[in-house]
C-alpha cells in the first residue's frame, strides 16, 4: 500500500548502522536514455525514453544518453537507477501534480523493482543481463531541477528528507543490456553502507564521527560524497580538552584546547574567515557560549575569554572552575554574510579597513588582522580599554597599526573622527568598518555610519553581549508557525524578554542555532507574512526580504513564519 514517507533524514540522531538486507533478484522493467531537452526554460538531461532493443553500455553510460553538465555523467556516474515502487509513494504525497510521477521521471536509465536505497550499498557489484557489470558509486545528489520537473517547490526537500534519491553506477564490464534482463548481486564489500545509510551519515542531525571517518575512507566512494563527509567532519561538534590556560590581563584568560578524538583525521582543519567556536562546558556540558577564535585550527585552537561583569555564569565558570584536562565540546560556526560582504571588498573598491574595538572585542578580529598582514592590506586598529594593562593580545597587532585609547590616560575613542565621509570627488565609500565591543560602542558606530550613508556591506559588527537574550526595550509579538511537514499551524506569543528562537524551542520545535547573537544565520526562519525589524548581520543579501534571524530579529506586526 503506497504511503507518505515520514522519514526525515536531516532530523535523525544516529548511534549505529545496521547491515543492509540483500535485494531480491530483480528484472529491468525499462531501459531508458535520451537527449538534452528544455525543462521550463533550462536545458536538462532528465528526459529519457524507454527502449526495447538491446542498448550498448560503455564506460560513460548508455549509447545515446546525454547530460547537460559533465559532473552529472562520466565514468563515476555512468548509469542511474531508481526504484519503480517509489513512484506510487510519490503520488500519495502532497504534490499539486501527482500524475507527474511516472516511471522514468527521475531521469533514471534503469527501472527495476525491489531494489531501493535501503538494500543497495555503495560498492555493490551487479551483473545486468549476460555481459554488463555495474558498481554502485553513490546515492544521487538531487538538485533543484527536480522542483521544476515535478512542478512542486517542495519536491527537492521531500526527496532529500526521505532518502528516495536513486543511485549512480560505474560500468566495470561493458556490453549490451535490454528490457527484461535480470540484475544479480555479485559482490557486496560494504554491507553497512547502504545508500540510505550514506545519506543518513552525511545529512543526519547527529552522528558518531567514527562513522563519518569510516565513510570518508571507503575506497569505492566518489570524491563528491567523500567531500560531503569531509564537510560533515569539519562542521560537527567534537570533543576537546583544555591543555593550557594563562591570564593575559587581570580579566582575560587565553585558553588552548586540543582535539580529544585522536582517531579522527580532519582534512583541511583551518577555520574559515569570520569563524567562531560554540563551546559546551560545565556540569553535563550544560553551559554554551560562543567565542571568536584567537588562533589555531580544528585540531588545536585558542580562545580569549574575558570575565564579564554581567555574566550569566559562562565566563565566571571558565575563569574559576574550568581546569586543565577538562573536556568541552566545540561546534565551529561561521558568518556567511561577513564572507559575502568581504568578497565585494576587492582591493580596487576598498583602500582602508578601520577596526574599532572595545575591551575583549579584540578577539573577534585577530584572524582578520593576521590576514591583512599576510596579504599586505591597509588597515588600522583603534582599541578602547579601561587602562593599558587591560589591553589583551596587543602583541598580535603591529604597533604601527595600533592606537590604544585608555580611559585612565584620558584618551577617548571618538567614533565620529574615525569614520571617514564619502569621497568628495565621486561620493564613493572606500573604507570598510569593523566593530566589536560593548553595545554602546557598536550603536554609536552604527548610528554615525548610517548618518553618513554607509552601504551595509562596508559595515561589519560582531556582538558579544546578551547572547540568547532579547534586547532591552524589545516589544512582545504574536507569531503563527506553519509546520509544513507536519501539516499544522501553531500560534505563539513571543514575550518582550524572550527571543523567538527560545520561544520556538520551548514550544517543542527542533531548531538549529549556534551563536544566538545574530551572526551566523543558523537560526533563520522564512517569514510568510508580517513586518520584521532586522537586528542581526547573519542573513545573506538575497535572504533579507524573506527570512528573519530567530535569535535576534523582532517582529513589528503579528507575523507568520514557516517551520521547515
Ligand atoms: S544562532 Fe547565529 S544568527 Fe541566530
From TrEMBL:
Domain of life: Eukaryota
Xref: Gene3D superfamilies: 3.10.20.30, Nucleotide-binding domain of ferredoxin-NADP reductase (FNR) module, PK beta-barrel domain-like
InterPro entries, alphabetized: 2Fe-2S_ferredoxin-like_sf (IPR036010), 2Fe-2S_ferredoxin-type (IPR001041), 2Fe2S_fd_BS (IPR006058), Benzoxazolinone_Detox_Enz (IPR052353), Beta-grasp_dom_sf (IPR012675), FAD-bd_FR_type (IPR017927), FNR_nucleotide-bd (IPR039261), MoCF_Sase_C (IPR005302)
Ranges of residues in domain MOSC: 49-186
GO molecular function, a single term: oxidoreductase activity
SUPFAM superfamilies assigned: 2Fe-2S ferredoxin-like, Ferredoxin reductase-like, C-terminal NADP-linked domain, PK beta-barrel domain-like, Riboflavin synthase domain-like
Domain FAD-binding FR-type: 235-343
Record CDD domains: fer2 (cd00207), PDR_like (cd06185)
Residue ranges constituting the 2Fe-2S ferredoxin-type domain according to the UniProt record: 477-564
Alphabetized UniProt keyword annotations: 2Fe-2S, Iron, Iron-sulfur, Metal-binding
A Pfam family recorded for this sequence: Fer2
Protein name (database record): MOSC domain-containing protein
Organism: Neohortaea acidophila
Lineage, highest ranks first: Eukaryota, Fungi, Dikarya, Ascomycota, Pezizomycotina
Amino acid at each position: 500500500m503506497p504511503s507518505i514517507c515520514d522519514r526525515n533524514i536531516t532530523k535523525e540522531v544516529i548511534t549505529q548502522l545496521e547491515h543492509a538486507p540483500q535485494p531480491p533478484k530483480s528484472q529491468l522493467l525499462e531501459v531508458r536514455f535520451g537527449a538534452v531537452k528544455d525543462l521550463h526554460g533550462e536545458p536538462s538531461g532528465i528526459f529519457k525514453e524507454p527502449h526495447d532493443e538491446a542498448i550498448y553500455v560503455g564506460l560513460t553510460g548508455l549509447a545515446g544518453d546525454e547530460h547537460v553538465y559533465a559532473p552529472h555523467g562520466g565514468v563515476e556516474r555512468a548509469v542511474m537507477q531508481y526504484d519503480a515502487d517509489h513512484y506510487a509513494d510519490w503520488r500519495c504525497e502532497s504534490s499539486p501534480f501527482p500524475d507527474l510521477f511516472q516511471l522514468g521521471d527521475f531521469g533514471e536509465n534503469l527501472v527495476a523493482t525491489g531494489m531501493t536505497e535501503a538494500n543497495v550499498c555503495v560498492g555493490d557489484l551487479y551483473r545486468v543481463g549476460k555481459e554488463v557489470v555495474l558498481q554502485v558509486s553513490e546515492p544521487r545528489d538531487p538538485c533543484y531541477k527536480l522542483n521544476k520537473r515535478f512542478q512542486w517547490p517542495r519536491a527537492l526537500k521531500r526527496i532529500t528528507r526521505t532518502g528516495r534519491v536513486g543511485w549512480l553506477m560505474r560500468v566495470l564490464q561493458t556490453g549490451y543490456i535490454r528490457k527484461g534482463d535480470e540484475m544479480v548481486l555479485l559482490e557486496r564489500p560494504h554491507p553497512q553502507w547502504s545508500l540510505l545509510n550514506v545519506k543518513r551519515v552525511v545529512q543526519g542531525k547527529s552522528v558518531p564521527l567514527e562513522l563519518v571517518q569510516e565513510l570518508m575512507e571507503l575506497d569505492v566512494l566518489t570524491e563528491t560524497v567523500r567531500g560531503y563527509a569531509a564537510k560533515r567532519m569539519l562542521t560537527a561538534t567534537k570533543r576537546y580538552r583544555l591543555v593550557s590556560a594563562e591570564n593575559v590581563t587581570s580579566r582575560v584568560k587565553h585558553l588552548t584546547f586540543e582535539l580529544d578524538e585522536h582517531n579522527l583525521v580532519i582534512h583541511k582543519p583551518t577555520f574559515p574567515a569570520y569563524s567562531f567556536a560554540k563551546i559546551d562546558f560545565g556540569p553535563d556540558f550544560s553551559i554554551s557560549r560562543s567565542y571568536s577564535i584567537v588562533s589555531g585550527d580544528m585540531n588545536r585552537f585558542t580562545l580569549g575569554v574575558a570575565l564579564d561583569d554581567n555574566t550569566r555564569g559562562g565566563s565566571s565558570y571558565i575563569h574559576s572552575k574550568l581546569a586543565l584536562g577538562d573536556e568541552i565540546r566545540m561546534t565551529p560556526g561561521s558568518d556567511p554574510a561577513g564572507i559575502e560582504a568581504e568578497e565585494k571588498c576587492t582591493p580596487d573598491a576598498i583602500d582602508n579597513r578601520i577596526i574599532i574595538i572595545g575591551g575583549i572585542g579584540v578577539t573577534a578580529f585577530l584572524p582578520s588582522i593576521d590576514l591583512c598582514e599576510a596579504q599586505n592590506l591597509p588597515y588600522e586598529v583603534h582599541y578602547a580599554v579601561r587602562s593599558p594593562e587591560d589591553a589583551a593580545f596587543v602583541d598580535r597587532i603591529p604597533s604601527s597599526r595600533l592606537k590604544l585609547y585608555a580611559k585612565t590616560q584620558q584618551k577617548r575613542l571618538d567614533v565620529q573622527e574615525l569614520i571617514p565621509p564619502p569621497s568628495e570627488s565621486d561620493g564613493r565609500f572606500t573604507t570598510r568598518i569593523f566593530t566589536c565591543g560593548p553595545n554602546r560602542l557598536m550603536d554609536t558606530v552604527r548610528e554615525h555610519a548610517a548618518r553618513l550613508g554607509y552601504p551595509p556591506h562596508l559595515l561589519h559588527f560582531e556582538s558579544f553581549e546578551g547572547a540568547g537574550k532579547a534586547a532591552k526595550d524589545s516589544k512582545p509579538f504574536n507569531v503563527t508557525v506553519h509546520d509544513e511537514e507536519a501539516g499544522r499551524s501553531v500560534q505563539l506569543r513571543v514575550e518582550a524578554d524572550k527571543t523567538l528562537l527560545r520561544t520556538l524551542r520551548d514550544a517543542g520545535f527542533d531548531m538549529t542555532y549556534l551563536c544566538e547573537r545574530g551572526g551566523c544565520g543558523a537560526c533563520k526562519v522564512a517569514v510568510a507574512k508580517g513586518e520584521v525589524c532586522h537586528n542581526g548581520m547573519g542573513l545573506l543579501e538575497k535572504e533579507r526580504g524573506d527570512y528573519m534571524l530567530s535569535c535576534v530579529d523582532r517582529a513589528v506586526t503579528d507575523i507568520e513564519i514557516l517551520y521547515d
